[in-house]
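anyone seen this seq b4? input:
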Amino acid sequence: MDLREFIQKIDEMGELQVIEGADPNLEIGAATYLAAKNQGNFPALIFDKIRGIQPGFRVMTLTYATDRRMNLLLGLPQDTNRIGIIKALRDKISQPQKLIPPVEVNTGPVLENLIPEEKVDLSQLPCPKWQSLDGGPYIGTGDMVITRDPEENWVNVGTYRIQVHERKTATIFMEPGKHADFIRRKYWAKGQACPVAVTLGGDPVHISVSGTTLPWKVPEYDYMGWWQGKPVEVIRGPVTGLPIPANAEIALEGEMLPFEKDSRLEGPFSEWTGHYTPARPEAAFHIKGIIHRDNPIILGQLPFLGCGVATGWTYLFRAARLWSHLDTVVPGVKGVWNHQEFGGMHCVVVSIEQKYGGHAKQTALSALGQFNYFRKFVIIVDEDIDPTNLKEVIWAIGMRSDPGMWDVVRECWSGNLNPILPPDKRAVKDFTQNSIMILACKPYYWKDSFPPRVVTDNEIESRVRAKWPQLQAKP
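predicted toks r here
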């Protein structure tokens, strides 16, 4: 299912709205944020007839930012709840992963139009400036950045923000420790420019996988093939020779030069933290050719849509991967969730059925160690607490926890995007933070005598629901 098939299906669901005549300077971003304020029940948006842009070039936002659209993406029943979504993802991830390499084809929709280097002009594409304090227009948010390791020859695909600076020049922001950053530095160490291809819109599953973190040397294309049960069809990029999905909407090809040879001031940008990240020098990405479909659609995957608004696959996938990992380490895991109210990656909640003394602490340590990038809070709750319900989680912290049961772990992995990182640490590139583990569980050795929770009897509640249906909460 490519992006256009996905659009057709969400239109049939009644969850698509077309906006005409928006200005890419702030209006597309403002309209997206305005729609997302109706949390849990907002349409996907397609911006058409964009002011100042040639007809046919479109921008799509809020593509799979609701549970219903995420269920569509994953092939799940529309009424699947959040724990059900995480369970389905966990079960998929826990299966043996027989990677399926991509297959090269001679042609595809992305080759319908070819723009040579002398005619490249990024200002002719809809490049939104999303928020007023952004350092400029950002064409790349729902993108795939494709690089090839020059020594080991495997292809990496990742999602990184891309700012437009000039007609043929952009920057690609990469945190230290990200795979594409390792790869580009290998080229630079050899005195070479790093070849890069960037897609702007395409198969939603491909872009979702691109935004996750797979182990080093696991090719994302092969993982996408395993996930979908068929190889990704790719064409050879006319400029770089890099593999590009044949059904991508737009692809930029070019090279990234070392910082010391050519750079631009990248940022600020309205990031997933809900804060603007500081501007900093970033390596220049010189674009030497563009290919695109007829009437292409650029995917705008805004990292921040307001406090508590989910932004798509990434937070679900990380929760599912953590659950799958915990199942191999500790028993009794009943649910895992990343809370958007904390900024998504900042806070993970794990619900367990305690089996032995130290079980909760072991779970917390395992959760923190699995992938601790930006993981500031690890909260462990009992099995009677819904980890997706922040009110229940806060209640458990208030009623079943004591600050003496919390542990601070210092010098954990963070990055430039962390708004609380002080200037002196940034100056020496010390991108570390403290993390805290909160055990909000009944103390194991006397949990059976812990005061029982006040809840309505299930049988009585069912009887009352049937008798007075008007008392039920409206969706």
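The longest strand covers residues 280-292. The CA atoms of residues 246 and 418 lie 36 Å apart. kinda curious what u guys think
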